[in-house]
Design brief:
About 45% of the residues lie in helices and about 15% in strands. The protein has about 180 residues and is α/β, with parallel strands linked by helices. It starts with a helix and ends with a helix. This is NAD-dependent epimerase/dehydratase domain-containing protein.
């Protein structure tokens, strides 16, 4: 069962959509941390890849960026183009089961910062603020049903998606 209001809201929404399935052909996807260019990269609504790319882009080589939590929390992230492809396959199918659309590659926030810093060609230090929200300790997308039923899985690596996202944010900041 969910351990937060956010989780309950998602579960309640799924139940509501399933009730519509009695009369309409409804498809339900559980999206897992979708990211990419054109997304919000400032403020609390920004996803970690965009927010961290923003912090790294603004930092000078050798500077320290603030990290919410201890950086050991883990997530899986799915690039937007893969999400669109998975959603299109789901919508074109007759599947009425709830399917996860995401990546099953788990990564820590610390490792993500290191990847982004490498893309930027910078050495970046980390200052941890454990008073800030960090969410659940770890969350990963189980794509077994999506792979078996839709024959779909993400194609774009995390590194490629982060590179595209970082470049877009860097261009926004420099324009």
């Amino acid at each position: 069962m969910p351990d937060s209001e956010y989780g309950w809201e998602k579960l309640f929404s799924e139940r509501l959509y399933k009730s519509y399935d009695q009369f309409y052909q409804v498809r339900i996807a559980r999206y897992h941390n979708i990211f990419g260019p054109e997304g919000t990269y400032k403020g609390e609504r920004a996803k970690a890849p965009a927010q961290l790319s923003h912090k790294v882009a603004e930092a000078k080589d050798g500077e320290v960026i603030e990290v919410w939590g201890d950086g050991k929390q883990t997530r899986s992230f799915c690039y937007i183009d893969d999400c669109i492809e998975g959603t299109a396959k789901l919508m074109d199918s007759e599947i009425t089961e709830v399917l996860n659309i995401g990546s099953d590659r788990l990564i820590s926030i610390n490792n993500m910062i290191d990847i982004i810093a490498g893309i930027a060609g910078k050495k970046i230090g980390k200052a941890y603020d454990t008073t800030k929200p960090q969410g659940v300790r770890g969350r990963n997308s189980d794509n077994t049903l999506c792979k078996n039923i839709l024959n779909w899985e993400p194609k774009i690596s995390l590194e490629e998606g982060l590179s595209k996202t970082y470049q877009w944010i860097s261009n926004q900041l420099n324009s």
